[in-house]
TrEMBL record, chain A:
Residues 18-32 have a biased composition (Basic and acidic residues). The gene is CIAO2B. InterPro entries: FSCA_dom_sf (IPR034904), MIP18 (IPR039796), MIP18-like (IPR002744). Residues 37-109 form the MIP18 family-like domain. This is Cytosolic iron-sulfur assembly component 2B. GO terms for biological process: chromosome segregation; protein maturation. Signal peptide: none annotated. Residues 1-32 are annotated as: Disordered. It comes from Mycoemilia scoparia. Keywords: Chromosome partition, Coiled coil. Residues 112-142 form a coiled coil. Belongs to the MIP18 family.
From TrEMBL, chain B:
Belongs to the WD repeat CIA1 family. The lineage of its organism: Eukaryota, Fungi, Fungi incertae sedis, Zoopagomycota, Kickxellomycotina. One of its GO terms (biological process) is iron-sulfur cluster assembly. Keywords: Repeat, WD repeat. It comes from Mycoemilia scoparia. This is Probable cytosolic iron-sulfur protein assembly protein 1. The keyword Glycosyltransferase does not apply. GO terms for cellular component: cytosolic [4Fe-4S] assembly targeting complex. The gene is CIA1. CDD domains: WD40.
Amino acid sequence: MSGKINAAPQVYDVQQTVRRESPTDHDDSVHDPIDADEIYELIRNINDPEHPLTLEQLNVTQRAHIHVDDANSTVLVEFTPTIPHCSMATLIGLCIRVRLLRSLPERFKIDIKIAEGTHQSEEEVNKQLNDKERVAAALENIHLIEVVNQCLSTASA
Amino acid sequence: MTLILVAELEGHKDRVWQLSWHPSGERLASCSGDRTVRIWAPSDPGLLSADSFPEKPAPGAWKALDQIESTHKRTVRSVAYEPTTGKQIATASFDGTTSIWEYDEYQGYECEATLEGHENEVKCVSWSPSGQLLATCGRDKSVWIWEAVGGGDFDCISVLMEHTHDVKFVTWHPTEEILASVSYDNTVRIWKEDDDDWYCTKILEGHTSTVWSADFSPDGSYLVTVSDDLTVKFWKAPSVKTSSEIEFVPDSGSWDLAYTVPAQAHTRPIYSVSWSHHASDSGNHGLVATGGGDNTLRIFKTVLNGGRDKTGFEATLVEELKNAHGQYDINCVKWNPCQKYSCWLATAGDDGVVRIWYYTA
């Protein structure tokens, strides 16, 4: 037995979406707002901590669950754990947060949450993922950050 | 009313977490994710007593005085000047230790003692007003009380294990040996000693998310708390009112909720609160500053005998400064503890900068 939390997750088809290019993309004089597509591109290829599959392949991240308000510099990413008792939920959320922390302009306030009703400890996980002090401490934990980096190694492929 | 930015202190290489004023009010210590503590002071001490200020921060008005290249292996989360002489500085770190530093004219800051015991991150250290007791708290859900035993050393006299999640912040009552602790478990606890035994006299419930910080009013008759639930709550100390003075009777009753600044005041978690040391008369109860994840610095005026029925306690917003640290979170706000310098406010942010403000009512 593999001992994995979810030994046989359902795998979803991946859409080979490439972000559509806008004519003003290369014009520096035009403010280029960060949008949900851009965020999705950043996180869809994050590797699941348990399987050699991406968060997109496991349907953990979905484009419709990303909410961006560029004018107010806020990003909310909701994700769906593969199973409601997934003990990896916090780690997955942390991976998404770290990916966005490293990629987005510093002005953004990032909220990471579990899609409502998809995890039995939803509130607990949300609280932990959005506690800046706990996140700061986690990022100083060498072993944890190694695991996060491993999950992120596929993200920018 | 105006808030004037007097100085922007740059030097930390990571976010600044906390600030502590020297008891003289003429120095400021800051601690950071870069594992150092920096000491700042006005270049000209006369600046503090000056009564006019430039419109823009004057370059060089404040300077870096000293630095503790700490031996902490991780973030220094909390810093506290010893409150009677300011000769020592306590630091608390995510590395699980608390250190006591003493200033030596020739050697600079030297580590006198390292207090070990917390299982992991220490989140706050606070000195009792007498300088005889130290409180620390951390991720391991505990609050530790330490007693000075001379020679810069401390003995642990109590470990309080009643919080159910990490304890974020501890602070001492200004006149009584009473400690307040606030936690990720959404509660505030009030601790007191009875015959060498520290016990929880009261659990303050009402916040619906993590409580990040707290501060007593200078006379100790109120406690203010700020939270992830975006509210600011004021709690009234147990007291009986005699003629004109408030007599503090700790066991005379409960710490009742006196006033809540509704959630609309802040739009992201509130990380810090500080009660000013302005002279207060019977009505005016001083100013309370708050700062947090919405980048906004707010100042509330507190009054007794306010509210609709003129009997209650009330806090009204008198100053709101958006982007006080640009687009970054404000992690700490701290009024100068000296009454003569009570218009001075220091703030620290995720931008790694410490800002010094002058507030005129």
